[in-house]
Amino acid sequence: MRDSLAAVRLLIGTAVKADPRRALVVLTLSPLLNVVAALQAVGLQWMVDGASGHDSTEAVRGGLLLLGVTVLVHQAAAITTDLRLVLQHRVGLEFDRRLMTLCSAPPHIGHYQDPEFLDTAEVVRQRRGEFGTALAALVENANLVARFLGALALLAGTHPLLALLPLTIAPLAAANRWQARLVAGAERAGAEADRRRRAVFSLATDPAPAREVRLYRLAGELSARHRAAFLAASGPREAARAKGALAVAAGWLLFAGALIGGLWLISRSVVEGTGSAGQAVLVLLLSTRLVGATTGLGWLIGWLRRSLDTVALYLRLVEYGRGSGGGVRPVTTAPAPDAAAPPHGDLVLEGVSFTYPGRTEPALGPVDLRLPAGATVAVVGDNGAGKSTLIALLAGLLPVSAGRITFGGEDLAAMPPQVWSARITACFQDFCRFELLAREAVGVGEPGALEDPAAVWAALESAGAADVVAALSSGLETQLGRTFPDGTDLSAGQWQKLALARARMRKRPALVLLDEPAASLDPGSEAELLSRYLRAGGTGPAAVTVIVSHRFTTVREAGLIVVLDGGRITEQGTHTDLLARGGRYADMYALHAAAYTSAATTPAAPSAAQNGRQLTPGVDAELAVDPGEMALDGTDGHREPVGDRPVGQSSGGQ
Ligand SMILES: Nc1ncnc2c1ncn2[C@@H]1O[C@H](COP(=O)(O)OP(=O)(O)OP(=O)(O)O)[C@@H](O)[C@H]1O
User: Fold this and answer.
1) CB-based contacts of 95, cutoff 8 Å, min separation 6
2) Where is the ABC transmembrane type-1 domain (predicted)?
3) Which tens digits make up the pLDDT trace of 475-518?
């Protein structure tokens, strides 16, 4: 009940905010007209009594009242319906806008990791078209209640017992509410299956997975899964609806019995001569109106209940936005509004850990780590070691579950999120393919410079991505993305280059985060990336640069290498230190080099030299393990798989 009241308040408040004048007219005039409409029956009563009593004045008065009220009600109803349609459209848009803000405004993205949030968001997203109609349901219910009360007031005037009719309608209303609650509960329980159904539908219809779906002949399997998910969600929903329908039918029987009793009372008074013919007509007309209003209410209450349920779910998302929902740890330290990030400083993690909602073990931590200002730090580790989680924590996208991260001595949790995010630039592993103009797709890296082609070109140049845009038909003004008829799609590597350029828009970042930045790049582009980001203070002399990579040509350039294993730091140091230590890093490095060496020496794979291609300086050659470095290990034969020649000079295939 409290939820429903809060939802009604929110709906009315949103309508008034979206369009105050229309809201005032629709919310007040509409119900008023429905009360006034009951006077039609009075006009008819006067007409009948005037005619049967040969009183032409009363008959004409009745006729005029009937005509006047009919014209007024019809005209005003047409106008208020128009106004309501526009208003409900605006309310729908207002909720869409709020939903977008709600999903993107929270300081971190922890809510996207929480299955409870995802389920609620799924239902709200599916039903978001109902926000506008929720207002319509509210207005229509108010109209019918007004019509019902108007009819009832006149009926009570003819026989006091008829005033008791509303009591018999209460069980019907309760049955309707119960049915709506049952259905809403079943819908919530089926949200996960609905999410699965949507995911399967996307797999079968989106262009990106189309190749693998064809190749592996998955259409039948996807279709079967889609149907199974549909049945899993819709079965309980239908059962709930049917169960509720039985209760509604019982409610109807009770009300119909009471109404028939009321009509019998009036008929008897007319027969006994205590009532007039006009009164009989009045009662007949009002009873019809009452039945109409009750039928409508029965249906509308279900609609209203469902609509208010959607709004109530939206309110739960709002609670999440405030950090008080689900398993996501709320931001406990209220950031000081005027807090600022120091220009530069060491980034320090003290006992930091993070546990994903629904998990018992931390994905990362506890971790203690100092990343000195100006340092280039590479993070390595097996799949699932916690590298991307670390990046998300450093970026402030996930709240730490325990411990703290400080920058220049300032606790990040006490810093307004927008202050910290303004100091960061990043290229994520699953970077976004912004289907915008090329200028915008890069410019969003620094929204203030979105309209500044010179700044965008500079970023493109410095990320080595200028060639991608130069080859586009309209250069910076080319529409990207295949969802647009005239849009240009790019290759994975080209999209990644734009993402890297985006990360170059911010001029003096304090922290540069690069999560697998070269995953889609060719060796030449990777080498260029290395020189631009990792060497010669490429990201600014005082910025901390953190790079996650499985490519050891990239990693070995870093001043500090951190090895993660099962969410813990197991080793840290320079490339040389870690090789000398002969631990996990040395193993990974040797394996990596061995893989490249064997690929280069396999006869079936023609070498670069055979192809007449020059080795890319700084890449192919760097893949070879420096014999001197491996010699640091000295004795451990299994870590010397590369031989004593650089790959480009290997004998393989020659
Ligand atoms: N949203 C999530 N919910 C629950 N667990 C998660 C979630 N995201 C990641 N994990 C888990 O957290 C752990 C660390 O994941 P993370 O993505 O940080 O690893 P990673 O080192 O970046 O891996 P990769 O090299 O494959 O990118 C993994 O065990 C993973 O299964």
Assistant:
1) 14, 128, 131, 132, 314
2) 148-302
3) 999 999 877 778 888 988 899 999 999 998 988 888 999 988 87
Residue 459 contacts residue 501 (beta carbons within 8 Å): yes
Tell me the two tokens of residue 237.
Answer: 């929903």
Omega within 30 of 0 (cis) for the link into 399? no
The residue among 2 and 179 whose pLDDT is bigger is 179
Protein residue with least CA distance to atom 19, ligand 1: 384
Residue type, 86: V
Rounded Cα distance, 410 and 420, in Å: 11
Domains of the chain, CATH where assigned:
2-186+236-321 (1.20.1560.10), 347-581 (3.40.50.300), 587-649 (no CATH)
Band (55; pLDDT cuts 50, 70, 90) = confident
Whose structure tokens read 């949507």? 198
| Res 556 pLDDT > 50 | yes
Mutation pick for ligand 1 pocket among 387, 546, 569 (CB with most ligand atoms within 8 Å): 387
Residue 644 has pLDDT above 60, yes or no: no
Cα(352) to ligand 1 centroid in Å equals: 16
Instruction: Identify whether the C-beta of residue 549 lies closer than 8 Å to the C-beta of residue 516.
Output: yes
d(CA 254, CA 89): 38
Q: Which atom of ligand 1 is nearest to the CA of 550?
A: 25
Q: Could you give the CA distance from residue 94 to residue 14 in angstroms, rounded to a whole number?
A: 7
Q: DSSP letters along 367-419, please?
A: EEEEE-TT-EEEEEESTTSSHHHHHHHHTTSS--SEEEEEETTEEGGGS-HHH
Tell me the pLDDT tens digit for each residue of 84-130: 889 888 888 888 888 887 777 666 777 777 777 777 887 788 777 77
Q: How many CB atoms lie within 10 A of CB 570?
A: 14
Instruction: Determine if ligand 1 sits within 6 Å of the CB of residue 275.
Output: no
Q: Give the contacts of 423 (CB within 8 A, at least 6 positions apart).
A: 341, 407, 509, 510, 511
d(C-alpha 295, C-alpha 331), whole Å: 49
- The number of the ligand 1 atom at minimal distance from the alpha carbon of 392 is 18
- Find out whether 598 and 653 touch, Cβ atoms under 8 Å: no
Which is more confidently placed, 2 or 514?
Answer: 514
Q: At what angle do helices 492-502 and 453-462 cross, to 10 degrees?
A: 110
Provide the residue count of the chain: 654
